[in-house]
């Protein structure tokens, strides 16, 4: 017990002083520590029922969900919440930008999750996460992206995906390959769904891409989207024109 208390006390040294924490989790430990902020009138049922998403929020949610983040809805009669979880500290600024965008839907600050050391590498992994309150305005997106609690690429993704949504897709689950092209991880979707998304990229934005596969050490095959090298300049110009859809800290994913 004494050793556990010492370990838990040391956790504060791992936290980022630039973030105001309302709670933290030590995943895999014997206890879970957290603090909560009491609800105010701002988060009453009336407020939730009357809240309407802005166009920026709507466009962003499409890309966020395509980037392997998810919605939670316990029953069809319940409302939905958005949950975001990304690697820390690599994706810290991106998560903070999402928190700012959906500030009127959240009640607590972002939290850093610290997990037990990986048994193979002994490395301690951390992530930063946020979650909204449950809102009726999010039910629409659950109905669009989920069936029997399984997420899929909507058939009308071409109509739903905007430049801002595409930016969130790449900021959330994209990376720059050593060959100078962007790879988008889409392992949570079926081959048919990924092909729909590839078709939408070309028909709507003129961005050529192809389907690629990656086999993990466990033998699991994951699907990816590989942006064609001839489309990279078009992609970068498109996402940076008029409105800076990419936050500065994530531009490295485009190689700029």
Helix content: 25-40%
Please name the CATH architecture of the largest domain: Roll
**Count of spatially separate domains:** 2
* Low-pLDDT windows of residues: 1-14, 20-35
- Indicate the proportion of strand residues: 15-25%
What does this structure look like?
This protein has 256 residues and is an alpha+beta fold. 32% of the residues lie in helices and 18% in strands. The chain contains nine helices and eleven strands. A hairpin with a 5-residue loop joins strand 10 and strand 11. The N terminus is likely disordered.
Provide a compact summary of the structure.
The chain is an alpha+beta fold and 256 residues long.
Secondary structure elements and pairings:
Layout: H1 2-10, E1 25-26, H2 45-50, H3 55-66, E2 70-72, E3 81-87, H4 92-101, E4 111-114, E5 126-131, H5 139-145, E6 146-147, E7 150-151, H6 157-160, H7 163-173, E8 174-176, E9 182-185, H8 191-205, E10 209-215, E11 221-227, H9 232-240
Parallel strand pairs: 1-4
Antiparallel strand pairs: 2-3, 3-5, 4-5, 6-7, 8-9, 9-11, 10-11
Helix pairs in contact: 3-7
Key phrases:
Endonuclease I-creI; 11 strands; 2 domains; 4-stranded antiparallel β-sheet; 256 residues; alpha+beta; 9 helices
